[in-house]
């Protein structure tokens, strides 16, 4: 952490939690996020366990990448992260849903919790929870990919999320489910 204080804010931090006791991974990642709130942070690891992936998700990391990925895949993922997207393996959506099961909100609670979101923005969140990319959301809803991105920006602004993962957690906590 000292290194972060000694230099100007970097655009991207890549971290490998290898060597950290598994119970401490989440707290260390949260501490890193708190020390660099405006910096994009990606976990690059060879650990494929759900516990490390969950730690990345719930600590607010911007990506979780496998060291076994090819160079082109890693480059593309890092470019997306630097552009403001979140990049996680497909199973991340299921882990978020599993960890954040709603406690049975009433329809009135759902309306109140999503009152500031348009019907289309709620659909976009549902597609996000289904693990769909911007391109597949655009196809499914018969809109352009740039329109999908605009809706995501509006949703993130309205709910105060910094990335798609935080938006997914917000949606699940309010009873919004995957669009099937």
Automatic annotation (TrEMBL):
Residue ranges of domain Response regulatory in the record: 1-82
Any Pfam family: GerE
A GO MF label: DNA binding
Superkingdom: Bacteria
InterPro entries: CheY-like_superfamily, Sig_transdc_resp-reg_C-effctor, Sig_transdc_resp-reg_receiver, Tscrpt_reg_LuxR_C, WalR-like
PANTHER family: TRANSCRIPTIONAL REGULATORY PROTEIN DESR (PTHR43214:SF42), TWO-COMPONENT RESPONSE REGULATOR (PTHR43214)
Protein name (record): LuxR family two component transcriptional regulator
Species whose genome carries this gene: Nitrospirillum amazonense
């Amino acid at each position: 952490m000292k290194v972060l204080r000694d230099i100007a804010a970097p655009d991207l931090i890549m971290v490998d939690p290898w060597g950290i006791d598994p119970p401490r991974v989440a707290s260390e990642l949260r501490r890193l996020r708190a020390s660099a709130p405006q910096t994009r942070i990606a976990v690059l690891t060879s650990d494929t366990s759900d516990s490390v992936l969950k730690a990345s998700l719930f600590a607010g990391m911007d990506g979780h990448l496998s060291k076994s990925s090819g160079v082109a895949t890693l480059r593309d993922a890092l470019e997306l992260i630097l552009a403001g997207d979140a990049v996680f393996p497909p199973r991340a959506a299921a882990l978020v849903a599993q960890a954040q099961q709603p406690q049975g909100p009433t329809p009135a609670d759902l309306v109140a919790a999503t009152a500031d979101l348009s019907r289309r923005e709620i659909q976009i969140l549902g597609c996000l929870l289904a693990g769909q990319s911007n391109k597949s959301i655009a196809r499914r809803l018969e809109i352009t990919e740039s329109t999908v991105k605009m809706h995501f920006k509006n949703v993130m602004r309205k709910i105060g999320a910094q990335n798609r993962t935080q938006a997914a957690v917000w949606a699940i906590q309010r009873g919004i489910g995957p669009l099937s």
